[in-house]
Amino acid sequence: MAKSSSLNVRVVEGRALPAKDVSGSSDPYCIVKVDDEVVARTATIWRSLSPFWGEEYTVHLPLDFHHLAFYVLDEDTVGHDDIIGKISLSREAITADPRGIDSWINLSHVDPDAEVQGEICLAVQMLEDVRGRCLRCHVLQARDLAPRDISGTSDPFARVFWGSQSLETSTIKKTRFPHWDEVLELREMPGPPSPLRVELWDWDMVGKNDFLGMEDAASPLAVLEELTSGDCRQELATKLVKLFLGQGLAGPFLDYLTRREVARTTDPNTLFRSNSLASKSMEQFLKLVGMPYLHEVLRPVINRVFEEKKYMELDPCKMDLGRTRRISFKGAPSEEHVREASLGLLTGYLEPIVDTIVGSVGRCPPAIRLAFKQLRQCVEERFPQAEHKDVKNLAISGFLFLRFFAPAILTPKLFDLRDQHADPQTRRSLLLLAKAVQSIGNLGQQLGQGKELWMAPLHPFLLQSISRVRDFLDQLVDVDGKEEPGGPARALVPPSVTVREGYLLKRKEEPAGLATRFAFKKRYFRLSGEMLSYSRSPECQTRSSLPVSHIRAVERVDEGAFQLPHVMQVVTQDGAGALHTTYLQCKNVNELNQWLSALRKASAPNPDKLAAWHPGAFRSAHWTCCHQAERSAAGCSRTHSAVTLGDWSDPLDPDAETQMVYRQLLLGRDRLRMKFLEDPTLDTTPEADTEKGSSATEGACPAALAHQREAAARLLEVLADLDQAHEEFQPQEQRKVAPGPLRP
Question: Where is this region: Disordered (predicted)?
């Protein structure tokens, strides 16, 4: 006999929601609960009181479930998200009509006291012995837990997670105030550090256990995530990805975030559904590293759609038979004629897209393949059950198809696939293509369900494509994991391939007796991964060259140095260790940026890069920037180790990325102090551990607070170090106005 049944749920849209933010708007998202257990979550729609989600889920319901609930919440930067309202449907209401429920339903008020509640008391200690480190978690007691049984009590037990390990306490029957006094010890396993998480559950003899609450100890990244949300979190994710890419550490960074996200996910239906730092970072990583790959896959078909402007429509409610004159019919056009013609056009566009994708394994950037390999391994370890066999593939296809390919098809201008936005007819065609690609990315999970049954004529093609995509995903992660994903490497600039060329004005270091303008000579430059060469013309056989491996810095030059704009300098080091500077003038600022990025990218792996440089020139026996009289004087400004990805359009500048992260920490500095370091009511001494508890929903248990305080203190120490470094680097005359170091 079946122990569960399936229910198709589609969260369509909301309207006339109340404003929860001071801006007069809200950032709504919806979660789906079965008997108080979260089983699905939509994306957040930012700054909208009439959000459109349009998301579908297949929910597995135990036969003894009581109700299905939909909560609409407003996502907030700090603190708990605001509950806007909820809808609760009983089992009887759901099963009353076999056709299901398809209508607008008013939200009802939510009483916070009726939701998850309670406190848990823990004592956590890290021990070391000859076998390594061991986390000792003493689960003492809990109180005021939510009643989950019809008797008005619960049968609570605690589950402790650390990395890939988990242990459980015994179950205390019929109480909301359990006393365990049990010690659980978990050994440290290889891999990136993981936070401690404690979950409370109500044990049920029949059906699924009921969730009572969760406690998650925070890492510095978790604290940083707590300080941001919405567009700010997306910007933070972009900067962090760029920062770690530039340092060759994108792999460990993404692996840590995804493992943390997977570890705290109890239901695979909600995996990576939220706009968490992990989801946003992986999404931005794809855009940064994979844009040329995306263009190669999609641009030919996108250009065809824009140029051919064919009318396509499968939805009979949206068909306009008056616009079908562009399609040749015998006799008057009918819905069936339009549907058949549209189906042919859609498959004609989709076939080359799918063919290109499944045949692109070798062209997908190795950094992306390695990141997906790590992601798949992590998800497979977390959900090894047979019923979750598709989760490991869905995690990858969710990012690649739903967050990368489908959005690019829907809005090609935002992904640099087109210069202009589409007209209404082309936009509709792109929407149909994006829906099809999204269905392929969902691996057919919601195929044939929901309201869009008019997509049924396309299902045979989609099912065939899904089978091919599964094989593609298996091949995609079949890659050597020894490489470090995301680090700058010479492979990005092939040694023998010319990556940039054109005329520039060249000048060597100060030639005596020549006026500034006459010192620059026009030369034709070529840049490859091995050499920066130049000659009088492209055809000239006599060429001079600078080995790329000798480059130690590539920087701009102040306009006042030569009274000329758009000048850069290439600093090289010869075999004897002497430094030489070549000055190059470009035609405009765009060309300057392109050459700067190309040269920095080509020289990114070089050792012994200069830490400082002179933005001026050594003329008339002194540097024009700092007026030092020695040519060999140390540079007065920091160098930039910025490199670029793809088509040189998106530089990775560690200085700029770090500055943004630093700014976010500054904005949240006071909140960190108030929440974790300066609250006199909080105590993390061992004695206090046995006297005070913490909310299972508010993250306030003494052990977790100790971890959060430690993380916050580390972040504040970083701020202090950065402030100190900033002060020390200022010129002497500016130090008196530099801010002093911050101390927690």
Answer: 678-704
Residues 6+ apart with CB under 8 A from 269: 39, 40, 57, 58, 59
Is residue 232 assigned to a domain? no
Q: What pLDDT is recorded for position 484?
A: 43
Q: How far apart are CA 273 and CA 288, in angstroms?
A: 21
Q: Whole-angstrom Cα distance, residue 442 to residue 398?
A: 7
Q: Please give the pLDDT value at position 208.
A: 75
Give the pairing type, strands 119-129 and 694-695. antiparallel
280: in domain: no
- What per-residue confidence (pLDDT) applies to 657? 66
pLDDT at 675: 59
Q: State the 10-residue block means of pLDDT for the chain, 744 residues long.
A: 68 90 88 76 89 84 77 76 84 80 85 61 83 87 76 85 87 88 86 74 82 68 70 80 77 85 80 84 90 91 92 85 56 77 91 93 90 90 84 91 92 88 90 91 76 83 91 90 44 68 81 54 91 91 89 88 89 90 86 82 82 85 85 80 45 63 71 58 38 36 52 58 48 30 24
Cα 159 to Cα 112: distance, rounded to the nearest angstrom: 25
Q: Closest by alpha carbon to 506, among 519, 488, 489, 487?
A: 519
**Which positions ≥6 away from 85 have C-beta within 8 Å?**
71, 72, 107, 108, 109, 110
Round to whole Å and give the CA distance between 79 and 695: 13
Q: Could you report the per-residue pLDDT of 45-70, keeping only the tens digit for each? A: 988 999 988 888 877 777 667 788 89
CB of 626 closer than 8 Å to CB of 636 = yes
d(CA 365, CA 557): 34
The rounded distance, in Å, linking the Cα atoms of 226 and 223 is 5
**Are 628 and 618 contacting, i.e. CB atoms less than 8 angstroms apart?**
no
Examine residue 540 and state whether it is found in any structural domain, yes or no: yes
User: Contact at 8 Å (CB) between 203 and 209?
Assistant: yes
Number of H helices, E strands in the chain: 17, 27
Q: How far apart are CA 360 and CA 293, in angstroms?
A: 9
Identify the CATH number of the domain in which residue 16 sits: 2.60.40.150
- Looking at residue 19, its amino acid is A
- Which position has the token pair 């149909």? 432
Is residue 453 domain-shared with residue 512, that is, in the same domain?
Answer: no
Whole-number Å distance between alpha carbons of 562 and 549: 28
Pairwise CA distance, residues 197 & 162, whole Å: 7
Residue range(s) defining the domain that contains residue 23: 5-96
The residues facing 339 across adjacent strands are none
Q: b or e along 184-196 (b: 16 or more beta carbons within 10 Å of the residue's beta carbon)?
A: bebebeeeeebbb
- Give the residue among 563, 631, 575, 568 at the shortest CA–CA distance from 596: 568
Map tokens 């093609």 to a residue: 461
Q: Are residues 620 and 525 in the same domain?
A: yes
- Please, what is the end-to-end C-alpha distance for the chain in angstroms? 61
- Report yes or no on 506 lying in a domain: yes
pLDDT score recorded for residue 648: 36
The answer to whether residues 506 and 470 belong to one domain is no
* Same-domain status, 473 and 550: no
DSSP 612-646: EE-SS-EETTEETTT--S-TTPPPSEE----EEET
Domain boundary among 165, 181, 214: 214
Shared domain for 154 and 210, answered yes or no, is yes
How long, in residues, is the chain? Answer: 744
What is the reported pLDDT for 494?
Answer: 62
C-alpha 27/C-alpha 46 separation (Å) is: 4
Do 321 and 378 reside in the same domain of the chain?
yes
pLDDT of residue 727: 46
Torsion of CA 54, 55, 60, 65, to 10 degrees: -50
Asked whether residue 510 falls in the same domain as residue 466, the answer is: no
Is the model's pTM score more than 0.70? no
- Which residues lie closer than 8 Å to 14 by C-beta, 6 or more apart? 28, 30, 50, 51, 53, 72
What pLDDT score was predicted for residue 693? 36
